[in-house]
Amino acid sequence: MSGRLIAEYPIPVRNPTMPTFGGADLxxxxxxxxxxxADANGGGLxxxxxxxxxxxxTVFNPDA
Length: 64
Prior knowledge:
This protein is 0% helix and 28% strand.
């Protein structure tokens, strides 16, 4: 991995909190947002299709 910026995806909120990738092909970017009284769009979940997929993760197994 090169560590370079390959895309930006703006969302209409002031406080995005945590991104994650989902879907069978990991090309659905989901972003949670923090509630903010000054931001009517905050406190929700945003999802969008993206060109570059995320990377699969492994599930932690404490018995392994």
